[in-house]
Amino acid sequence: MKRIVVSGGSGYIGSALVRHLVARGDDVTVLTRSAGAEGNPRRVTWNPYEVGEWAASLDGADAVVHLAGERAVGSRYTAAVKQRIYDSRILTTRNVVAAFAKAQRKPRVFVSASAVGYYGDRPASHPVDESSPPGEDFLARLCVDWEAESQKAEALGVKVVNPRIGVVLGPGDGPLKVMALPFRMFVGGKLGSGEQGISWIYLDDAVRALALCVDDESMPSKVNVCAPSPASNAELSAAIAKALHRPNLFTVPRFGLKAIFGEGAQTILTGQYAVPGVLSARGVSTTPLAETLARSL
Predict the structure, then answer these.
(1) I need a surface site. Which of 40, 134, 146, 233 has the fewest CB within 10 A?
(2) What mean pLDDT comes out for the span 216-241?
(3) DSSP assignment of 118-180, as one string?
């Protein structure tokens, strides 16, 4: 049994991870804006923008998994929105590391989330793995700074692993619910050219990969958490339509997305074809796309 602290533990990925850890017998503490009843998981109120009393809950933990952060894709970008997205990752990570500095017994490992957006916009002809350099757009620069902030924990003797998480597909209120809605309404289709890559992974597989980042002491510092078969937006759209027995006839034009999301449309119109080099080398298998959609829709 491990003692594990999870921030963002009430989010889509975090809540699934917490259920998995509790089910296997770990003692889990969730850092949350509103505390709940005592039990497993234990819930501790925190303000991620200040190092407060919550920092004591990290003292003696075997692992800390940091998943907190505002949604970065599907928002209309303004200077204020971009700053909130940035602060929700950089400042909160900085404060978790500051809490480590106060701890008498520091965690063995800090699993601090990143994203495949680290690689920027890449075509299908140039798939990326963990050795690939970062991109240059807003999300790529955000991920570079986010990872750099977490790496400061190494100076405290804490191992740091950055899972670069792809688009997590599964049942419930995750990204797939939003993606599937136009198809359910018989107006589904690709976005823009449809050529942009989507590095996806099934929710249960993402959870197992994050647990492996906690458990495997030999895990390298960068881990792509995605399936080995990224899809184009057009391919994923066609697969969703097939799973729902709906038409796949429409195209949402670039200008329409830009009118709605402004600069934020770039996060929808661009993507990358990331592959899980580290997980594949460890023999980790993932669920195929058709099965993922069948289980989720």
Answers:
(1) 40
(2) 98
(3) GG-S--TTS-B-TTSPP--SHHHHHHHHHHHHHHGGGGGT-EEEEEEE-EEE-SSSSHHHHHH
